[in-house]
Write a structure and sequence with these properties.
- The chain folds into three domains: 2-151 and 299-326, Medium-chain alcohol dehydrogenases, catalytic domain (Quinone Oxidoreductase, Chain A, domain 1, Alpha-Beta Complex), CATH 3.90.180; 156-290, NAD(P)-binding Rossmann-like Domain (Rossmann fold), CATH 3.40.50.720; 342-395.
- Mean pLDDT is 81; it is low at 83-88.
- It has 398 residues and is an alpha/beta fold.
- The protein has 15 helices and 14 strands.
- 46% of the residues lie in helices and 20% in strands.
- The strands form three sheets. It has a six-stranded parallel β-sheet with strand order 11-10-9-12-13-14, with helices on both faces. The chain has a five-stranded antiparallel β-sheet with strand order 7-3-5-6-8. A three-stranded antiparallel β-sheet has the order 2-1-4, with no helix packed on it.
Length: 398
């Protein structure tokens, strides 16, 4: 079968012919119909992989501590060999897909061959033709919901968990900082709950997309007047700020603290730096809450892999498949928008790779005006990322 895999050392992503996963007790084999690309998450992961060893260490100090602890018990040589073997491996990508069950393992009574299911979980719901999915990471798809829409269930569950963590209620003002795929889903959930929604992003295209998907006010975070515009829209500020951006900078959290009202609530869904000013948080008596992926059961191996169930009232994935049935038109628009956005980002990366190969072979003089312009824009984006990393290193004392 075909699978999209990433080289952990180089960050190269390519298709490979691999054996089909075996059917194991407690899970099902699912033939993938649609696999959702979470462009922000997967591109951020690729950027991290492409960093030098020092860059990787700065980005993931938790893994550095694990290596140091292993070296203390098994020796430096063993730790080095373990790291090198990890870097030489190919890893699957993706964590949200939908398809049809082709086989059910021992102990699985919830599913049978032919069932349409939505699947979740990194390392399981991958960009592969066939996946082995533990039973607690799959849910049936209602007949009225397409598998294309259902493939967004895990990503939607992340948005739903973030919104639940906010405890937002009817009539409150919810600011969503970061209008990518998870952000747009959060906007729709907040609107469905009767909230007034402010969308904020530094990308003008995403700002416009957020407005089309229902945001009452859509703002660009690079505009100095953004806090003032929020104040004009909501007299006392936002009741809740949900951060769905991904950046090594603490700017999203600082912005959230700035635009929230007194005793407002901040929920962090995306991967951002939490180095927010204590003074702002203290003077407003703000609450800061983190949202753990798609909620209860996540990272609990007994639930995810061993099939030990939780109360049904805690689940988010099935809630998203039911919600998809009620908002079919919005889902279709969102899928089309997401596809166009992600295809554009991937196509742009391919163009830059092609331009760099041309420069390597024939020199800068061989480039057209348009190719030089594209390369400058890509360079500017990389420079901004490098500045963010430099700021992060400075804050951490490197």
């Amino acid at each position: 079968m075909r699978a999209i895999l990433e080289n952990i050392r180089s960050g190269e992503v390519s298709g490979h012919e691999v054996p089909q996963p075996e059917l194991r007790p407690g899970g099902v084999l699912v033939r993938t119909a649609f696999s959702a690309i979470s462009a922000g998450t997967e591109l951020a992961h690729r950027e991290q992989v492409e960093k030098s060893l020092l860059g990787k260490a700065l980005a993931r100090p938790d893994l550095v501590r694990q290596v140091v602890d292993f070296a203390r018990t098994a020796g430096v040589k063993a730790a080095y060999q373990k790291v090198q073997s990890r870097l030489d491996t190919l890893a699957p990508l993706g964590y949200s897909c939908a398809g049809v069950v082709i086989a059910a393992g021992q102990g699985v009574s919830e599913f049978q061959p032919g069932d349409r299911v939505a699947c979740a979980g990194a390392g399981y719901a991958s960009h592969c033709e066939v996946n082995f999915i533990p039973k607690n990471l799959a849910v049936r798809v209602p007949d009225a919901v397409t598998l294309e829409a259902a493939s967004l269930s895990a990503i939607g569950a992340i948005a739903l968990q973030g919104f639940r963590q906010s405890q937002a209620v009817l009539g409150e003002v919810v600011a969503v900082i970061g209008a990518g795929l998870v952000g747009v889903l959060t906007i729709q959930l907040a609107k469905a709950a009767g909230c007034r929604v402010i969308a904020i992003d530094r990308d003008s295209q995403r700002v416009e997309s957020a407005r089309q998907f229902g945001a009452d006010l859509a703002l660009n975070s690079t505009d100095r007047n953004t806090p003032q515009r929020v104040q004009e829209f909501a007299r006392y500020g936002a009741d809740v700020a949900i951060i769905t951006a991904a950046t090594p900078s603490a700017e999203p959290v600082e912005l959230a603290a700035d635009i929230c009202r007194d005793r407002g609530r901040i929920v962090v869904v995306g991967t951002v730096d939490l180095g927010v000013s204590r003074k702002t948080m203290y003077m407003k008596e703000l609450s800061l809450v983190l949202s753990r992926s798609y909620g209860p059961g996540r990272y609990d191996s007994q639930y995810e892999e061993d099939g030990v169930d939780y109360s049904a009232s805690l689940f988010n994935t099935s809630s998203m498949t039911e919600s998809a049935h009620k908002h079919k038109k919005l889902n279709k628009r969102m899928i089309r928008k997401a596809q166009k956005r992600e295809e554009a980002e991937l196509a742009e990366q391919e163009r830059v790779d092609h331009i760099l190969a041309k420069v390597s072979a024939h020199g800068m003089h061989s480039l057209t005006w348009w190719e030089k312009r594209s390369l400058r824009k890509a360079t500017d984006r990389q420079r901004r990322r490098d500045l963010d990393l430099k700021e992060e290193m400075t804050r951490k004392g490197f």
